[in-house]
Automatic annotation (TrEMBL):
The keyword Oxidoreductase does not apply. Belongs to the glycosyltransferase 2 family. This is Glycosyltransferase family 2 protein. It comes from Algoriphagus halophytocola. The keyword NAD does not apply. Residues 9-177 form the Glycosyltransferase 2-like domain. Keywords: Glycosyltransferase, Transferase. CDD domains: GT_2_like_c.
Length: 305
């Protein structure tokens, strides 16, 4: 027996109860025509999820016994929705986001105008600095195998984040699909534990001749590192990042595999050349900053490619 809903939202939680509850509250306040059905996938959090079912009226929770990664957890939610729900649209949404009223309808609207659109996404601003863009539409640089984000870390501009348009990259933070497109593409690659799963999916969509559309009419606020609650935590490819080895290895391996899987010929050769140069320079820069463990990390990373 299928339950009918216009929109299903997939959230992945890992020790982020406060963020998840705030996200659900923003969905409740979104003034959508029909309240979305939420599938919440918990990746073996050590903290409980008290009263979530009572807090949000239509939700299904999948509780994993281990942390299976961001991409696979989203795929779990997608598969459950396909098996148990009759829906028109599906949204992959980070749990540390806040949805603004009208955003769901803004994400749905482009599908009604172009049946070659497989994914829609929207303007994403920092929750801590609401006038600064985190994602304003993105384009994949095929030589580097990496996306560039319009107006990143800047106020939105008319030509950039405030301009609705077709793009080649959508962040996995906010990705909406039709039922048909999510069935055709099946979500993220299960082999990507974390990082670049959105890059790979966008490449796959483009390879199949479908389109990605960015709308500036919807807005999501992203906490990014909101769970740190004001503490200064070093993230990214910074030499002081305590999780640098995990981030570097997963990001560089997945970046390479995403490109190798979806491009070929001269384009692939050019990417591999540029990748090798940028890989070496990044290792060298981190060593200069004091990370003398980078040669070992680099060898381990290359061994996984």
């Amino acid at each position: 027996m299928f339950e009918h809903t216009k929109l299903v939202v997939i959230l992945v939680n890992y020790n982020g109860y406060s963020d998840t509850k705030s996200c659900l509250q923003s969905i409740l306040n979104s003034h959508s025509d029909d309240l979305p059905f939420v599938v919440l996938v918990d990746n073996a959090s050590s903290e409980p999820l008290p009263n979530i079912e009572e807090f949000y009226p239509i939700i299904h929770i999948i509780r994993n016994s281990s942390n299976i990664g961001f991409g696979r957890a989203n795929n779990q939610g997608i598969n459950w929705a396909n098996e148990h729900l009759q829906f028109s649209y599906l949204l992959l949404l980070n749990n540390d986001t806040l949805v603004q009223p009208g955003s769901f309808n803004a994400l749905i609207k482009p599908f009604e105008q172009d049946d070659r659109i497989a994914i829609t996404t929207c303007k994403t601003m920092y929750e801590g600095k609401r006038d600064i863009v985190w994602y304003g539409g993105g384009e994949i640089n095929f030589k580097r195998g990496w996306p560039s984000i319009q107006d990143f870390n800047k106020p939105a501009s008319l030509q950039g984040a405030n301009n609705s348009r077709y793009v080649s990259f959508a962040s996995g933070c906010v990705m909406m699909f039709t039922k048909q497109s999510i069935k055709e593409f099946g979500g993220f690659d299960d082999n990507f534990f974390m990082y670049c799963e959105d890059l790979e999916l966008c490449l796959r969509v483009l390879k199949m001749g479908y389109k990605i559309y960015y709308t500036s009419e919807g807005t999501i606020y992203h906490k990014v590192q909101g769970s740190t609650k004001g503490k200064s935590v070093v993230t990214g490819m910074n030499h002081n990042n305590p999780n640098l080895e995990f981030l570097f290895t997963n990001m560089k391996v997945n970046q390479f595999k995403a490109m190798e899987k979806n491009i070929e010929g001269l384009s692939l050769l050019i990417f591999k050349f540029v990748y090798s140069i940028e890989f070496s320079l990044k290792v060298l820069k981190l060593m200069i900053k004091g990370r003398m463990d980078m040669p070992i990390i680099a060898i381990k990373t290359l061994g996984k490619i």
